[in-house]
Structure formats: structure tokens, C-alpha cells
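Hey Z.,

So I finally got round to the alpha-L-arabinofuranose thing we talked about over coffee. Here's the setup:
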Amino acid sequence: MKGEDKGMAKLRINSKNRVSKINKEIYGHFSEHLGRCIYEGIYVGKDSPIENVNGMRKDVVDALKAIKVPVLRWPGGCFADEYHWEDGVGPKENRKTIINTHWGGVVEDNSFGTHEYFELCRQLGCKTYVNGNVGSGTVREMSEWVEYMTFQGVSPMAELRKENGHEEPWKVDYFGVGNESWGCGGNMTPEYYANEYRRYQTYVRDYSQQHMEPTGEPAILKICCGPNVDDYEWTREVLKTCFRHASEDVHGFMDGLSLHYYVFPEGWDIKGSATEFDDKVWYKTLNKALYMEELVRRHGEIMDEYDPDKKIALIVDEWGTWFTVEPGTNPGFLYQQNTMRDALVAGITLNIFNKHSDRVRMANIAQMVNVLQAVLLTEGDKMVKTPTYHIFDMYKCHQDAQLVESEIETKEIGTEEYPVPNLTESVSVDADGRLHITVTNLSLEEASEIETELDVNVKSVSGEILTGEMHEMNTFEEPEKVQIKEFNETVVSESGLKFIVPACSVVHLTVETA
Ligand code: AHR
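And the result:
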């Protein structure tokens, strides 16, 4: 029976060694005008029979608030480099109807635009990350969008915003200067893009400093388009071109460099089914998810050469699984189901980000609703929380906590071609001094008994677990098949804690220390 055999592993935790802050934005999300992510998934309009607040689905917003979505990237993706923001402001009946050429060739009526995006973020209580158009937009267009969103005084764009019903400026926390400029965002070379970055970012003005009372809050943080997967040349060339001209203080010039990495079990062309896979594909998928560690480490090493003080964040603003679309759905909509395999990919990846939180300071899973590795799926007025949602729920404990030094003994399992360690982990301490341990067991057969070596005394411990057979998922017929359960089998021992992590599961322990 699954989980009967047990391996033993030591988990060493040095809670006194606070390594880095786990920025809450690592738990960020991405929503593009793609398929049923924005329309249907989030925005249904005020007149919809589906319960909504100012057009936003109430069930979806409530579920997202529960996992504390810290930041939301919008409007793309590839869509961002074809998006002209003026099309999406003003009276809805006057907004331009366009074709979404990237994603299914469907009609985009622009009923969700800048005002609706900020209303969504207001309802979610999250930070904003707007991605600008370098590929097919002008410097002026980008500059005016920033003016429209953030300028408080008297100016043409601020007046237009007021005419359109929003007196006060909004806060843009992050601004992306282009998306995938090496591909759908303009097919540029790194040198060419780097020069474009220098030019475009100049006009992403920080109006809070120039025209408003200084608030002491950080200005708009600018994100430069970084590499696709392992394109280390892109990282090096972009930094080289930008740094020759960057001032000593990079703040306000380049605050982040993005990285995109998706897990395609069978490669870009075939991808593979989201729900039908065998043990071999399970390990292949997890092996590919673990590759994220090498990517953030190696891109980080190149960044260290230019920016040893780690002022520039590595921003993994697109990550997740990418499977073949669900049978019978529009291939351009990227709608896929989500199983325990996705839960493990999320648990592994978030542990990696936590452990690299000195450099990785934001990440955005692709995408929030109904697209790729979504946390929520909708069908009409129904909504289900996917296994990935539950991982974000369990891991929210790490948001803004301090990563502490930890190390777990692992053994190699998987297949010869796609080996994986049986366990991954990360440990943090929150503002109230509680320790949070998240452990993933990648094995399909073997439970692991874990004994901690802890440098503090344990007062009490509580736990939660997400576990199931590898194919298990939540459907509209059976929405609660995969759920977080209480995990209270942890024993307080002399050296710390002892607990058994079943095969194919993710565990979160909260430890009160004496
Ligand atoms: O998330 C889907 C697409 O993947 C995005 O639009 C693009 O940036 C990436 O290639």
C-alpha cells in the first residue's frame, strides 16, 4: 500500500540563522487576456447573473483573498505587447473591439481595462504589476499610460482619468517594460532590447517624487525583460548594455529582471495530458520542475557579477505547468485540469523560491484562473479550487517571513533518465516567532520518516497535509476530492520533532517554540 515503506531522513534547522526575507510577492499571480482567465474567470460584468462586486466574481475574489494574493501581473504575457491601453478606458460602449490574435483569435471588447484592473486589485487588497507594451507600442504611449495611472496634478492624462471616473491616481507598484521581448514581444536581440529598455524606462516617470508630497514609499519598481529559461547570454548581454550606463544606484532604473520557465512534460510540441500520465511521466515532470533551482542559481550568478549587492531582483513572473488543453476546448485558451502532480510542482517550486529569496523577490504563477496551472477553475457560476490552490493556501505562512537555514537528507528516486530527490523543504520564521516547515514528498511509493535537529525547544506543533493518489483532482462534480487535512501525527522528540510524510504529499508544520 502506498506509504507503507518508510525511509528515514534528518532535517537540520538552524533557526538562529536568518538567511533572507521571503518577500510575499513570491506568492504572486498572473492574469492575462487569454482564454477564460479575465473574462468569465474573474470579470463577468455588473449585469451578470453570477454574483459579483463591480463586475468581479465574488466567489473568485473571496477564494483569492483567502490565499492572500500579494500581487497581480496584468495584462499579459504576449497580449501585453499588443495591448493599447487607450482602447480599454472610457465608456464601455465606446471602447474598441479588437481581435486577440495571440490567443484563439477571439473578440476582445476591452470591457476590462485599466480601471477594472485597479478595482480588482483593490478588492483583492494586493499590489499592482502592470506590464507595458514595447513590442508594438510607442514610448509616448507607455509614458502616457504611467501618467494616466499615477499623476495627481493637472495634466492631460490625469484629466482624462478624472473624466473617466477616477479622481485619485492609483499606485503602480511594479511596471514591466515589455514581455518576452526575445519572442512574442518583438523578437529582439539582447543588445537591441537592452537599448530599448534604457529608452522606454526613462519615460516611466515616478510622479510621486516629482509632483506629490514625498510619501517615503518606494517609487514604481521597473522590471526589465529577462531571459527565456536557460538563455544565459540574454541575461549577460542585457546587464552588460544596461550597466555601462546605469547610475551607481540602480533603484529607479532597473529594479527587477524577469525569468520565464514552464514545465512541459513532453516538450513544447507535444506537452502531454494534464490528467493521464504514468509513474515515469510523474517523475519526468517533477525533474523538470526541479530545474528551476539551477535556473535561478545560474542567472543569479550572472547577476552577481554586475550587481553583487543584489539590488536587482530576479522576478520569475511566469512559471508553472503547461499541458495539452482539455479535450474539446479551444487550443488557444490553454485550459487544463490540475492534479496532485501540479500540487507537487507548486510545492517544490515555492520551496526553491523561498531558498533563493535573497535574489528571487517576486514570482507570478501562470495563470490565476482557467489558464495553465490555475489555482481556480470556473464553469458558469461554478468554481473549484485546484490542488495548486491548496498549496498556495498552505504556503501563505511563508509570506514576508524570514527564511532560516535548513537542510534535509534526501535520496535519489525516480527513473534513470529523470532522477529526483525524494524530499524538498524550506523553513521560515514568521513575525510572531513561529517556525513554518514545508516538506514535499515526491515519491509515489515511499513515505519518509523525518527527524528534525532543531536548535530551539518546541512548545507545541500543529500541521496540515495535502495528499492523494497522483491523478487526484477537483472537478465541478467532485470539487472537494483534494483538500487540506489536519496533520497531527508529529511527535516532539529530544532533538526536535519526528513525523512521517506519506508518499505523494505536501506537509506544513507550524511550530511554537519555547
Ligand atoms: O502564459 C502564457 C504565455 O506564455 C504568455 O502570454 C507568454 O508570455 C508566455 O510565452
